[in-house]
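Ticket #404: bound-state structure for C6P.
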Amino acid sequence: MYDINTVRKDFPILGREVYKRPLVYLDNAATTQKPRCVVEAIANEYYSVNANVHRGVHFLSQQATDLHEAARETVRRFINARDVAEVVFTRGTTESLNLVASSYGEAFLHEGDEVIVTVMEHHSDIVPWQLLRERKGIVLKVVPMTDEGVLDLDAYEQLFTPRTRLVCVAHVSNVLGTVNPVKRMAEIAHAHGAHILVDGAQSVPHFKVDVQDIGCDFMVFSGHKVYGPTGIGVLYGREDLLDRMPPYQGGGEMIARVTFEHTTYERLPFKFEAGTPDYVGSHALAVALDYVSALGMDHIHAHERALTQYAMEQMQAIEGMHLFGTAPGKDAVVAFNVGNIHPLDLGTLLDRLGIAIRTGHHCAQPLMQRCGVEGMARASFALYNTREEVDALVQGIDRVRKMF
Ligand code: C6P
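RESOLUTION: The complex was predicted; output attached.
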């Protein structure tokens, strides 16, 4: 049984007040709060294990290395990668995407080659490809969507040419909550001889993501959005591809042997992990993944889907409400505007009621342009949010609306 009251007790911050009101934290797509076990894992490692990994022969270094490599295995299991060689630790989704753009771009992309992105991508899955376009003259193509926020799969298929090399798609939109059909999109990409990268920043925290089942070539996510610490993230890549890609950065950890004449590189995944890794972060991420696994990703998903549906129903009834993203099966994110109220005003006034939401372009300006707005307000849910919090949001929005 998924007992929300027990679950909430694991997150001390949820008990605090802001402006003398109970905190209603609905900005989970930006970052999630951390359960006690994750915070304690960080403190305990610094208190009693801390040493640099992969270098020392001494006890602490070996213990820290064991925790770091055990974390890699936890991630592997969590996303069902074939081998730990396919799990690269990075600073987060953004660095993972830049790593692929830089390294895959170097190995596989030439002038005139095409990369397909979608209209609902986050800037971190657009700008690295634009930087590559400036460096290498690749061509960027964009999958359009319907007004409901559903990708147009016919249009997607028509974008492919013999020069298409890679597709990059958000598994779940951080604005619309649309769950994109990445498995089908992978089949189509592969049928055209292209690779596919799935941005799992907004899917990994909400439901089981199985990279082998999806059949993707790359998948990226951030630790801090899945109850882990900031500064740690993951790049999953198919081993044969990672093997053929050059290092992203040079330094310690990623080399086999260095002379002034010639350097050879470490085996996977270390080839992509130059410098001291965030070994405390990786361990704490593993603790977070174990935490959500123990709750059950299916339970978390069911809870959040029901909450999202409830929020959509309640919010729809508010006068002047415009909801963005009404795709069937949408997940954990509700973006909206109310009448002519500027989203920043809405967010600021809700904040005074203790309700934390995000406002603005959500790092998806091309999507804002597609929707014909400068910005939106956005509530996003996590495993610890309740119906009462949705009610507080709805009442809060209504109260703000009446002020205008
Ligand atoms: N979206 C949001 O409030 P980083 O910052 O590297 O952890 O994640 C970047 C990122 C990439 N892809 C998607 C789909 C995302 O949602 C995000 C982060 C946050 O929506 C911060 S802008």
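RESOLUTION NOTES: The chain has two domains: 4-30+296-401, 39-293.
TICKET STATUS: resolved
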